[in-house]
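Internal ticket #5521
Category: modeling
Description: The requester needs a full-assembly model to guide mutagenesis choices. All entity lines are attached below as received. Residue total reported by intake: 1872.
Assigned to: D.W.
Attached entities:
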Amino acid sequence: MSEESAGGIRDLGFARLDTDRAARTGDPEVVYGAGKTPQQVVEILTTLHEAHPERAVLATRLTERAVEVLVEALPDVVVDPVARAATLGPLPSPRGTVCVVSAGTSDAPVATEAALTARVYGAGVRVVTDVGVAGLHRVLAARADLESADCLVVVAGMEGALPSVVGGLVGVPLVAVPTSVGYGAAFGGLAALLGMLNSCAPGVTVVNIDNGFGAGVFAARVARNSRPRDIEPA
Amino acid sequence: MSEESAGGIRDLGFARLDTDRAARTGDPEVVYGAGKTPQQVVEILTTLHEAHPERAVLATRLTERAVEVLVEALPDVVVDPVARAATLGPLPSPRGTVCVVSAGTSDAPVATEAALTARVYGAGVRVVTDVGVAGLHRVLAARADLESADCLVVVAGMEGALPSVVGGLVGVPLVAVPTSVGYGAAFGGLAALLGMLNSCAPGVTVVNIDNGFGAGVFAARVARNSRPRDIEPA
Amino acid sequence: MSEESAGGIRDLGFARLDTDRAARTGDPEVVYGAGKTPQQVVEILTTLHEAHPERAVLATRLTERAVEVLVEALPDVVVDPVARAATLGPLPSPRGTVCVVSAGTSDAPVATEAALTARVYGAGVRVVTDVGVAGLHRVLAARADLESADCLVVVAGMEGALPSVVGGLVGVPLVAVPTSVGYGAAFGGLAALLGMLNSCAPGVTVVNIDNGFGAGVFAARVARNSRPRDIEPA
Amino acid sequence: MSEESAGGIRDLGFARLDTDRAARTGDPEVVYGAGKTPQQVVEILTTLHEAHPERAVLATRLTERAVEVLVEALPDVVVDPVARAATLGPLPSPRGTVCVVSAGTSDAPVATEAALTARVYGAGVRVVTDVGVAGLHRVLAARADLESADCLVVVAGMEGALPSVVGGLVGVPLVAVPTSVGYGAAFGGLAALLGMLNSCAPGVTVVNIDNGFGAGVFAARVARNSRPRDIEPA
Amino acid sequence: MSEESAGGIRDLGFARLDTDRAARTGDPEVVYGAGKTPQQVVEILTTLHEAHPERAVLATRLTERAVEVLVEALPDVVVDPVARAATLGPLPSPRGTVCVVSAGTSDAPVATEAALTARVYGAGVRVVTDVGVAGLHRVLAARADLESADCLVVVAGMEGALPSVVGGLVGVPLVAVPTSVGYGAAFGGLAALLGMLNSCAPGVTVVNIDNGFGAGVFAARVARNSRPRDIEPA
Amino acid sequence: MSEESAGGIRDLGFARLDTDRAARTGDPEVVYGAGKTPQQVVEILTTLHEAHPERAVLATRLTERAVEVLVEALPDVVVDPVARAATLGPLPSPRGTVCVVSAGTSDAPVATEAALTARVYGAGVRVVTDVGVAGLHRVLAARADLESADCLVVVAGMEGALPSVVGGLVGVPLVAVPTSVGYGAAFGGLAALLGMLNSCAPGVTVVNIDNGFGAGVFAARVARNSRPRDIEPA
Amino acid sequence: MSEESAGGIRDLGFARLDTDRAARTGDPEVVYGAGKTPQQVVEILTTLHEAHPERAVLATRLTERAVEVLVEALPDVVVDPVARAATLGPLPSPRGTVCVVSAGTSDAPVATEAALTARVYGAGVRVVTDVGVAGLHRVLAARADLESADCLVVVAGMEGALPSVVGGLVGVPLVAVPTSVGYGAAFGGLAALLGMLNSCAPGVTVVNIDNGFGAGVFAARVARNSRPRDIEPA
Amino acid sequence: MSEESAGGIRDLGFARLDTDRAARTGDPEVVYGAGKTPQQVVEILTTLHEAHPERAVLATRLTERAVEVLVEALPDVVVDPVARAATLGPLPSPRGTVCVVSAGTSDAPVATEAALTARVYGAGVRVVTDVGVAGLHRVLAARADLESADCLVVVAGMEGALPSVVGGLVGVPLVAVPTSVGYGAAFGGLAALLGMLNSCAPGVTVVNIDNGFGAGVFAARVARNSRPRDIEPA
């Protein structure tokens, strides 16, 4: 082991990688692509993959250009174009179930980022889309999917009311993700954020606007540590 | 007619009353009680009632002390303690129906103010309470009441999601009233206000925080001018 | 009926269309163009038109490119360039009258969107433009048009004072639309929004910034259900 | 002259008074009463009056208790209870005319503070009250008073639309004063402040919320330096 | 069963109680004490307890007066004075572990409310107090407690940095609770709320300011459904 | 006179021009260029100039392209490139003096717009630039210029402190213009705006962020009506 | 040493005291009085004083009642009523000089808290009061005091312009403290805070609104470590 | 000396340079590049360098184009591409030590600007990067560097928690710089700014968002005036 990687730290010049993080928390390595050049993303991804070839590394917030460079440089990379994300290496076996619910088609990038993240972080994932509050029958139709999950991720923009409706239906842990979908007094997701923070359904928690990644991390940690459904609690 | 009431204007010293307003708009006279002494409320109410003895005058935002003074000074006054409001004179015959829906028990003062106002402004009124978004079955159970109204007033605090749910169920004109119920990031009703302004249900309009009066005025104007239900449109 | 359209739901892959919505609310189908590719707009519009060939379908928030593609793909489409909107199919017979009033020439896109929407939703529409508060004579000159409408839509940016002035003149139900016209402390329409929410004229309701569509929907619902003018109320 | 008043500065321990300010700017001395004990107000007022017995000294933002103490300690003091202010010493001869216009009865304290301030600062003052935007005929009836003034002070709370209406009628310099009258989304005067800053009438300037004093100072400086009406400009 | 309690709904006049909620979600009944009279709290608590005598009912946000009335009326009630909360009936057996961590002594009411809530909702609870960010050694000393929990609730006011520090140490699901502790630019908890929403530690979720109850509900749902520590995941 | 210009109103299709405004207020005609095509600016400018050939018409907020088109279409137009404005027709004789003071070189566009506007509105104008608060000697050096003006326009971005300093030096009416110069917590001019509204110097009034035009209008109205300096007040 | 004080930590039940903090940073112990009962303040102060009898302990944000209880319980306590603070034990020898400058008399509590804190933290302190921006001569007269200090603390409310003026005069490190003095658009100190953050004078740093304590701590750390004035730098 | 440079002022037409500023405050000359053309930057830099050839002049906020022009026009210029800044002339001998600490790689431009500024202003500089709060071991590993500095500059975006952690470790004067790194509820650096202003670590001061320059100026002034480490305080 070279000096620059002592203590699990690899120094690439433009970034110091803590390649032992997984060992500490059980989570995979992640490259946050925003503000990085495509070449930097490739380099970090490669380094992390070499350190942990047995488990998928995740890259998020990729520009179109970064995706092109990635695909060319790393033939084994798997890109999710809707989530603007990519993985390199085998996905872990799924444990528990995260159900990602989204309100409108415009929320898809955030919802998909949450779903992919949860999967890479070790959970099984189920996706339910386009169940807006103004069409209650769609929410009600998805009830079985919602109830059988170990953790819910509910994604919505505009007024962000979906978590309240879902949270009133089922008692599953629920992480709400406000999106920046909307205009005018949506104020870039602020309306949805405040709506979710003030949800009248108890037990709703919230992450930052458009932070599908954070919700996926949290939900996976809950789901993969959940009691299997066939082991009934006392 | 004395000089000081020329042109339908009566000058009480601390206020100038436009006693011909009703003739101009078909609406009753109203005393906004906030910031006025109980004695001033009595005096204005008396003056307006004398100018229009055939139709109820409305007083809103009354303090407890104002209510006491009113009841003693004007035995014919009818007080609605929940709405913190009072009327003097006969209510008009109801035309059309306003349905006032509220989310929680804490929203009652605002919802009741809206209901009383709509009634004094000439509409029939139906009230549905405690139909929070986190208990969808209550909303669904009220669907017939919602659909048969000429105008809906939907009152909610916290995340203010109820108008989106109701507006997705029925196509009746819907006025949403955010309330200051909540704490923390509710910011005194701001969260509910923003939520309602960004409702994904089309055709939702909004009034100021806690403005049950304004919603009642608007809804009554819509309802009393509505086509009777037995006259089917072409 | 194919499986994918069971229950009035058509699934296009990128969107699930609820082609029975009209039956539920009496409203037309609408395509919200923002965030959709021109080809997606064409496909949804076509699908909805096929489901309801007897009644106009509305597409809003169209980009210039979307308009070009639409016109080429669907020769029968009717484009309103100021409103950045288009319709496909015959307009319904007008019932009742919505009067759309706007303050300045920059408010035209929002006002025109409101007018077209109200028309497609079944109301007759009258338009009064350029009646800014700083030129009261123009407002007063339009008084007859204002009074004879069943519902008013009042569009203004900057300080958003026009609804207060109009609402003080007539007792017609009034929906105010703040626009993002202005700069500096207009804060993208916030000043107009707050001004309208705090209107001293009773019975003013408000929609989101630049939401001409929502105001049009609401006003049409009020107008088309209004008592014909020659049937005097009791 | 004692040492502690060298250079026109008098040091009272809790405050250093610049008793030569009047000589520098032509303005009177003023005691800002907020946050001072009644006894401190008396002491400062006395000191300033002794330094300038020939011209009125002004005390603003007085509590009820401060007024009681003032009246007892200084029999010559003249109290304006609505403005929560007092003067000691002879008022200057009026030069020019300030017209103070206010929208509602709740704006009276601020409007009266502006009027008294303008008078103490040397202008003649005319007051027009209760001319809300929702009652345009009152505004129009006051047009002659508005046009003949050298400077207007227009006071309004809630949506603060009155300055736009007045500023569209006449070309007189206009200072707008937003008040904290209102509730909910009035946000303590913010709605009125933003409305006034974005007025579509050119040439409207604005002071802080409830700052009748500042508007009065400004307007008096304009009015007392104005060309007499009988000296026509070239 | 009387008519007024049909369908698990009991109508007390001032509130409609859904006494079957527990059956639907596995959660206990709760009385939110804010805005209710002490007598109302007693009545609701009694009704809910009678419906579910086998499981504790929780009352939160109690005033001092409400606590006095409760203790007198219901001798079996157990009051937690720091949490301003009370329980009536036997606590459930604890399943899983929630660890509640708080930054300063002023955060105690919120932290204690979270702890009591989590306990009543069925989790075991461990409490770690006074581990402010500015004293890192206290955080580090608590690491074993943090790592062995199934869900963390981290409570902090002012800049709200504690969740970032804790979230960087361990990979346990973490719910952050901002408190209104602070002054000036803390803006009633807004600074802490924004800090937590923007945490650089992945997987931090957030609830409303001072919402210890919501965090406790969420954390209990996670913990009581967690895989027992001695059943290792595959 | 053709029908479309009856009552001093000329209708260009895209705008209705009130060509009698000057007669009403003594002010010139103005074209607000923002949001208009270059050709529209030319057309309006031409129409207004034809109606009032004896007095300059002002066009503001011109894009570079609009300036090019203007210069080509109207050879007599005079362009001020810093102010992004142009005039057509002879300037009026100056009456009174407006002194425009600005803090930094980045404030020049706003300051120049104010100066040109004041000149077109009939005042004489003096300009003092680059007198930032952090270089007090420059402010003090300009004192004579400040004192001899009839109205001051003080332009500053960032913290907007210059009006307080200038307003403490002289008793001349002072209009403050916050600019959007700055970054970060300047929030697009909000910091300067708030600073100016809270100025500790009495008699400071404020206009919208970057609104040099409004300040120029106001200041010209004050200055041109001011008592000539050689006619001493009584 | 008892168990509960192991590692320099003393546990009082309601608070854990880190009695070794001084050793780590060279700073004194401090009791933040807000939110503590008078008896708790006495108990903590006593405990800290016993641990460090050789150096003053500081208590801040004391209520009037806390001061009364303190004086009675601890005869040796020294109270500063303006700063609402108290010390117990001998002050350290002063090293270096902090100069605290304040704009208005209402800023005195914050300025005095800063001065006392700096003194208890080991610096010499000089105080300059009432040097508002609107009276530049007072600022200029204090220039020598400003220049000879090792660190400046500049306290101002309202528009908070004083730091810019002082920072433009001298190159001494300057900590600005915004105060909540003001009303309306001062927004509880926000205007002053933003003004100071955007100061055009380079090298101005800012603390929280009303945080005289924090400014005093910082300034003392700078001053007491400063090169003595008679040791000229190379 | 030509007339235009009398009193140390050089007038370049587009800017007036105060070439004696250094003499007054001991600081270097600086060109703020934002909003200036590359040619203007060259011209000002040249002029300032000619006036002070013995000491480096600093140019900040340079665009890429400005850097290109600078390098071509002034071969002796030294560019720091990360800081987007350049110097011309010899750097001063370092006195004292500023340690610049930053949280993430995205904070590098601001941190580097702070470091270069501090160096040009006369301090020695040490840089510690990538010590995010979520990786405490990196912070702890840098403790010796932190403790031995005379002033710390701590740069962080997102929740801005790093200054609290660092400020809790050491008692060195600490200037915090919030950056605009983040998204959603980071609100362009507002979350970090509020977090730093509310730091629970005493003695943290804050500058504007992204203002590395201001922090560098302040820190250099503190460091270069600090007591040398080998001269122990009494």
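Resolution: model delivered.
Comment from assignee: Chain A has a mean pLDDT of 90.
Ticket closed.
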